[in-house]
């Protein structure tokens, strides 16, 4: 998914100096951002208070939207570098095309994982004949220095492992949870999991004390470590936890995001993750001139133009604002 914000700001984040080393309960509110013709997303990362959670650097939550008489998601071809995109649906379908030639329809409970590496471009759209509702999340994972120049690739995993307990079913989207490992390729110690809580659920989920964590509320309302988390918000939890209390009086859907704090400072602008101002500006130039990022074939429409890079140069501000 693209960042369509025409006022995209340059920022530097990452580094361990700004990680909260103890458990906290920091509720983050979303910023509402239009996406394409008929979709509005709730942007949780980067946030006014926090830029990353582990290697997770970007989180959009959208829907549920009634798109029965609408085109639904329509994101034209656009570039990425230095990151992985994670597509996760609760309702609807998203048709993915990219410059490696991949073509896949992602459905609820399936993982669409695109590793941009040095450069890729892709499009995302609701199929012409689509379900009434669209509901899901799109996330980015920052690639570490050793892998950010890798060859681009796309993975589509239609069956994912689960961790179950009374009142809880956890689908491991990326990384590992309680010894259960996703088939998706991960380049840092990380976890992304969909948590389905049944009515009356009261469970303590095992965690890694060296990871930092956050929980995104996708549907319903649950209490996470005693804090009510409204739909569309995210609770940042810090590090140092060995377990996480979860409770729900009615059915609720959450997403657990976590990982080892990302030790490298990164520069994130528009749809690029790099390390320097010059690198970002060169990526924009390459996309504008048709170099490096390839071509998305089969999309009916023009590709997305890059916004102007601000004149001001980057200044490191760490993981938090």
UniProtKB/TrEMBL annotation:
Pfam families: Pirin (PF02678), Pirin_C (PF05726). InterPro entries: Pirin, Pirin_C_dom, Pirin_N_dom, RmlC-like_jellyroll, RmlC_Cupin_sf. Residues 193-292 form the Pirin C-terminal domain. Residues 41-141 form the Pirin N-terminal domain. Belongs to the pirin family. This is Pirin family protein. It comes from Streptomyces sanyensis.
């Amino acid at each position: 998914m693209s960042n369509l914000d025409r006022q995209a700001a340059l920022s530097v984040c990452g580094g361990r100096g700004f990680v909260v080393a103890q458990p906290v309960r920091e509720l983050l509110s979303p910023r509402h951002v239009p996406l394409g013709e008929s979709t509005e997303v709730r942007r949780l990362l980067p946030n006014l208070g926090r830029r990353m959670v582990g290697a997770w650097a970007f989180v959009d939550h959208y829907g549920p939207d009634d798109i029965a008489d609408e085109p639904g998601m329509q994101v034209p071809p656009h570039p990425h570098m230095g990151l992985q995109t994670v597509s996760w649906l609760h309702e609807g379908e998203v048709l993915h095309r990219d410059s490696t030639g991949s073509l896949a329809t992602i459905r609820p409970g399936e993982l669409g994982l695109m590793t941009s590496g040095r450069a890729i471009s892709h499009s995302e759209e609701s199929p012409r004949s689509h379900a009434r509702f669209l509901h899901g999340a799109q996330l980015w994972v920052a690639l570490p220095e050793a892998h950010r120049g890798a060859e681009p690739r796309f993975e589509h995993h239609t069956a994912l492992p689960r961790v179950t307990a009374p009142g809880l079913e956890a689908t491991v989207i990326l990384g590992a949870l309680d010894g259960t490992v996703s088939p998706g390729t991960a380049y840092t110690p990380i976890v992304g999991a969909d948590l389905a809580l049944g009515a009356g659920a009261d469970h303590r989920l095992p965690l890694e004390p060296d990871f930092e964590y956050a929980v995104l509320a996708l549907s319903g309302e649950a209490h996470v470590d005693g804090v009510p988390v409204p739909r569309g918000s995210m609770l940042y939890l810090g590090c140092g936890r060995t377990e996480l209390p979860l409770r729900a009086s009615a059915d609720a859907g959450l997403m657990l995001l976590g990982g080892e704090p990302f030790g490298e400072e990164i520069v994130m602008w528009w749809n690029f993750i790099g390390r320097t101002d010059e690198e970002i500006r060169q990526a924009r130039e390459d996309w504008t001139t048709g170099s490096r990022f390839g071509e998305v074939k089969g999309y009916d429409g023009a590709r997305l133009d890059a916004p102007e890079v601000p004149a001001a140069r980057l200044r490191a501000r760490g993981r938090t604002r």
